[in-house]
Amino acid sequence: SPLARAQAKLAQRLQIFLDKSVPKRAERWSAYACVALVYAIRAYFLRGYYIVTYGLGIYNLNLLIGFLSPRNDPESLRASNDGDDGPSLPTSNEQEFKPFVRRLPEFKFWWMSLKSIGTAFAMTFMPMFDIPVFWPILLMYFIMLFFMTMKQQVKHMIKHKYVPFTTGKPKFAGASAGG
Fold first, then answer.
1. TM spans, by residue (predicted)?
2. What is the sign of the dihedral through the CA atoms of 140, 146, 149 and 154?
3. 157, exposed or middle or buried, with CB in 10 Å at 0-12, 13-18, 19+?
4. How far is C-alpha 62 from the geometric centre of its chain's CA atoms?
């Protein structure tokens, strides 16, 4: 049908745009900041939709935790190895370079965050989502939740000795370039 073809063509164009935007990290996050600012201004002037904004904050906090977490959590790996069936090969070498692999890659983090702001923005046009609440309580609860979650995440990083930002394979001085 013509509608299905138009939808497929639109989806293809979106995918082409997303593929071209992958290497442009600064531009993507700048665009995200602009969209977030537009949402914040709209929410401020509407003086409502606090539940929507709170939900947006909680969802993005969840995405941030996924972004900062390793794909293979050391605690879950240790728990799965407790019931060993016998000897196994070593799984790590302390001298081997292992870049940090995220549970949620940066591009997916950006795209899911952008979609969440778009969804929240659309919800601000529907009065049924403007539920009256006392917003300072939501704000305080979100701030407490944010700091408690980040504290737990930092403790996890320290305990398992990982940093979620890698700058590449370490370079050692003294090796000659040729020869």
1. 51-68, 133-150
2. negative
3. middle
4. 7
Which two tokens mark 108? 């997916």
DSSP for 119-135, written as a single string: HHHHHTT-GGG-----H
Q: Which amino acid is at 97?
A: F
Are the beta carbons of 97 and 167 closer than 8 angstroms? no
pTM: 0.78
Query: Is residue 171 classed as helix, strand or coil in its secondary structure?
Result: coil
Q: What is the pLDDT of residues 109-165, one digit of tens each?
A: 999 999 999 999 999 999 999 999 999 999 999 999 999 999 999 898 888 777 777
- Residue 123, exposed/middle/buried by CB under 10 A (0-12, 13-18, 19+)? middle
**Given pLDDT bands bounded at 50, 70 and 90, which one contains residue 75?**
low
Residue pair 124/42 in contact by the 8 Å Cβ criterion: yes
